[in-house]
């Protein structure tokens, strides 16, 4: 019999939840669960324990909380514990937690610590051995990350100054005061937009962060404020919607959301709804070779969650195109994590059935980097990478529009131009090119391999420096 403490990474959204149990006590806690909750139930079954506590460090903005979904599957054994600091309110059944509240799970105990800044209500949880007074670890949620801090600008401009001050105080008065040996377990790993340039390890220590985290080395508020503002990545469009949904309480299913299979005729009927979004999850080369007109290509990788969040309204009716029918559950879980549950169906038999039914097929030309280089006067390169990627070099004479802002800036592009769309490796390029096609751009080309292939081929790069 032993204490178990396990991080559980949700790739794509780069979110880390935690499963904590003491087998001898027979009880378990889950911290910051994702909605596809089977993994926690399987852990409880594996260790022969019952999940009794579900903790949320704060009201999440980047993914759909799985607290209510997990609680519904625990058949009444588990309660949801949320912070009511900062006057936070919720529209679902919960247990209130405040600064100093303690919880014991056999050999380990948790103590709530108010760490505002990322959000007003944010709590971290100090981890102790049951007989010790000094913590050995801390669950920092979205307040302290590896090499980074949680961003304070997600509640709008009117709250940013207040939250920036709170974050500075949390960093100086809470985290910097902890022992160097305390292990830090954050809610996000590298790839999340909840903080700037989050490091790529799963955990760290207070001592390491004091030495290497640039924000923890700043001693004045004005310098801290400038560093936070200058480093802030773009705010994904789904963040405000997710925060409201998580405070209200997401719908529960008791299982992975079910999606019905559709014949070609049924699929066509659903397509008649002008609000419906067709997501084609196949590889960019397969999509380029032939797809249903109007489909958006977001390939079946973990990052699908993030780009669906950025680009597709959570209430939009969704039709799915899969590589194979067996991919359905995986794709649905990825979409569920950023709040997409309005599924109208998927095309049974995928594109094979569509093409064998004699239905029209749209192509998206794929342009190699060599073809682009040899015929550069015929194409206008369009770079859809992040600003920081763009600043580190680009294909000469390219236009830059970040993918997350493409829909808002699409009217700045000339529909008559022969566009060659690229990103780092091609995944985002295909998303962007499919959006352009959907919006009536006829002369669009996607570049497989994109900037990585361009550099690997030894082709010229335009270097730039930040203003």
Q: Order of strands across the biggest sheet?
A: 1-2-3-4-5-6
**CATH domain class name of the largest domain:** Alpha Beta
Q: Please, how many domains?
A: 3
- In CATH terms, the superfamily of the largest domain is Ribonuclease Z/Hydroxyacylglutathione hydrolase-like
Report Rg.
Answer: 24 Å
Chart the SSEs and their pairings.
Layout: E1 3-10, E2 15-22, E3 27-31, H1 38-47, E4 50-55, H2 67-73, E5 79-83, E6 95-97, E7 102-105, E8 108-114, E9 123-129, E10 137-141, E11 144-145, E12 148-149, H3 157-173, E13 183-186, E14 204-205, H4 206-212, H5 221-231, H6 239-248, E15 261-262, H7 264-271, E16 277-280, H8 284-289, E17 296-297, H9 304-311, E18 318-321, H10 328-336, E19 343-347, H11 350-356, H12 369-374, E20 380-383, H13 387-391, E21 399-400, H14 406-409, E22 419-422, H15 427-438, E23 444-446, H16 450-456
Helix pairs in contact: 3-5, 9-10
């Amino acid at each position: 019999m032993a204490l178990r403490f396990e991080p559980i990474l949700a790739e794509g959204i780069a979110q880390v939840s935690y499963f904590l149990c003491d087998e001898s006590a027979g009880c378990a806690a889950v911290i910051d669960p994702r909605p596809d909750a089977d993994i926690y139930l399987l852990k409880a079954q594996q260790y022969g324990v019952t999940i009794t506590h579900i903790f949320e460090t704060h009201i999440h903005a980047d993914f759909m909380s799985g607290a209510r979904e997990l609680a519904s599957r625990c058949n009444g054994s588990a309660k949801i514990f949320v912070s009511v600091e900062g006057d936070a309110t919720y529209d679902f059944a919960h247990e209130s937690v405040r600064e100093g509240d303690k919880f014991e799970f056999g050999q380990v105990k948790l103590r709530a610590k108010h760490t505002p800044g990322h959000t007003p209500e944010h709590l971290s949880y100090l981890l102790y051995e049951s007989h010790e007074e000094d913590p050995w670890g801390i669950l920092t949620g979205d307040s302290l990350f590896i090499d980074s801090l949680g961003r304070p600008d997600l509640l709008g401009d009117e709250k940013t100054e207040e939250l920036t001050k709170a974050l500075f105080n949390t960093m100086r008065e809470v985290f910097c005061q902890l022992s160097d040996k305390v292990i830090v377990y954050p809610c996000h790993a590298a790839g999340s937009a909840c903080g700037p340039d989050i490091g790529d390890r799963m955990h760290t220590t207070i001592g390491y962060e004091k030495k290497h985290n640039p924000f923890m080395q700043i001693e004045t508020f004005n310098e801290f404020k400038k560093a936070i503002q200058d480093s802030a990545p773009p705010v994904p469009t789904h963040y405000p919607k997710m925060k409201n949904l998580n405070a209200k309480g997401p719908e529960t299913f008791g299982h992975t959301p079910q999606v019905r299979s559709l014949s070609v005729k049924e699929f066509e009927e659903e397509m008649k709804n002008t609000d419906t979004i067709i997501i084609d999850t196949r590889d960019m080369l397969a999509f380029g070779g032939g797809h249903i007109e109007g489909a958006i290509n977001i390939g079946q990788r973990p990052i699908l969650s993030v780009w669906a969040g950025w680009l597709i309204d959570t209430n939009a009716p969704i039709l799915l195109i899969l590589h194979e029918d067996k991919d359905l559950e995986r794709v649905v879980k990825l979409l569920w994590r950023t709040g997409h549950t309005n599924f109208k169906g998927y095309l049974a038999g995928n594109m094979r059935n569509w093409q064998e039914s004699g239905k029209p097929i749209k192509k998206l030309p794929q342009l190699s980097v060599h073809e682009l280089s040899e015929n550069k006067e015929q194409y206008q390169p369009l770079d859809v990478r992040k600003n920081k990627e763009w600043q580190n070099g680009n294909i000469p004479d390219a236009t830059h529009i970040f993918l997350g802002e493409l829909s808002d800036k699409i009217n700045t592009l000339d529909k008559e131009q022969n566009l060659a769309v690229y990103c780092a490796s091609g995944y985002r390029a295909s998303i962007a090119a499919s959006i352009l096609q959907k919006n009536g751009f006829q002369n669009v080309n996607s570049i497989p391999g994109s900037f990585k292939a361009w550099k690997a081929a030894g082709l010229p790069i335009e270097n730039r420096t930040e203003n």
